[in-house]
Design goal:
This protein has 474 residues and is α/β, with parallel strands linked by helices. 36% of the residues lie in helices and 23% in strands. It binds S-adenosyl-L-homocysteine, iron/sulfur cluster and FE3-S4 cluster (F3S).
Length: 474
Amino acid sequence: MPEKKLYIETVGCQMNMLDSELVVASLRQRGYQIVKSAKEADTVLFNTCSVRQHAEDKIYSALGRLKHAKTHNPDKIIGVMGCMAQKDQELIFRRAPYVDLIVGPGQLHQVPDLIDEIQSGGGQKIEVSLDRAAGTRTDVAQSFESYDPLRDPAMRPTPYQAFVRIMIGCDKFCTYCIVPKVRGPEQSRDPEHIMSESRRLADEGCREITLLGQTVNSYRFRHESGVTTRLSDLLAQLHEIEGIDRIKFVTNFPKDMTPDLLSAVRDLPKVCQYLHVPAQSGSNDVLKRMKRGYTVEEYREMMAAIGETLPNAAVTSDFIVGFCGETKEDFQQTVDLVQECRFKNSFIFKYSTRPGTRGAELFEDDVPEETKRRRNNELLAIQNAISEEDNQPFLGQRVEILVEGPSKAAQKTDEGQTQLQLTGRTMCDRIVVFEGNRRQVGQILPVDIYDANSFTLFGQIVTQHVGTEVYSLA
Ligand code: SAH
Ligand code: SF4
Ligand code: F3S
């Protein structure tokens, strides 16, 4: 079989990174090899995101740049997959008529067959059914079974870390958010399937799994017997898998942060004490318009419950600034919340109106771009100062890290040296940069911290490894 060359570009969240891995795994089975540029590829795929306008603009300009390549080589196949494929559907063909393939996130298992059909002269293909009528267990099993098990460690940042999907879709319908529309209704995956996929990953040498769901802590699987498996139950089961040393889960929904889950995180040593629980805003008026389903007082109570059960946990958040009708006072309340909660870090986004959401229908996008930018910068500066302060107590501490690979700087100048700058992560998701040996990638090692800024701890590997030493689980 002649080798076929595939170039894939991925934007968006961890769900998309996982989807790209699975699509590549299925295409490798058909003889595809990954290449580094669209130019040298026979097939070019974009896995897209619609969460903000900017993410879509990036893909449309990348498509624009390919127009010429397609004129030169009409056999080159260009495909658009994922959330923007689902949202824009045929509009993509209208804006870029040379696109061959449009596939929504629910149909990605069909990509290899669709490409074959196009190559056999089948013309343009579009598969964007979200199967909204789905929701029965059979449908969940089908969509996962036919598609999830094939993995491709080479597509991951390291083979020692992997995402495992435990849910698809979202039912929360926050008014600003396009995700429920493009990813369909929330469905939890059978724990048996999650276990067998995780066991297989462990057998292949993977040491850390990150469970994925848009609202991962809403996970609930009802068995035919009537028994329900919650996320806390699932964590306890996964904890038993030999070879898996670390378990993370993202993203949490504040209202579903239940006591059983917090206790599971406390009692299961392999589960990372790292909780990403986006608040989005500190103002009740804004939260109400966002339809987040909680008040800022309830969010504070949740933070207090985390603090009580998990005093050393790292909590991170997302915020949207400049949502419709956000006043100076509303924004100040967000600042107050950030200052009070002292998140390990926060992702801060300027509101981007999304056609097709309730927010776009109901409210005017009335905060000027300049104000959005100012609020974004202000909140970011406050958060960064907190992150830097919170990293200072690590100076002089010994932490345990999973070594991930060459640092960004080392990747740029990488000439195959064995001794180089590496990065790793602590149990609480703190990034540590240190001088190490390439062979240490994938190991869990003790490091002494000697410097810290907002984003990074700097350390030195502990060479005298005394077997019985106890390290702080930072
Ligand atoms: N399911 C996750 C995150 C989904 S999208 C959750 O519920 O938290 C990731 C982040 O993008 C969101 O937390 C939100 O802060 C941001 N976001 C979503 N829609 C947005 C929009 N229209 N404009 C700006 N930011 C948005
Ligand atoms: Fe979007 Fe809200 Fe669902 Fe998160 S919980 S994916 S923000 S609708
Ligand atoms: Fe984007 Fe889709 Fe994720 S819209 S954030 S890639 S679920």
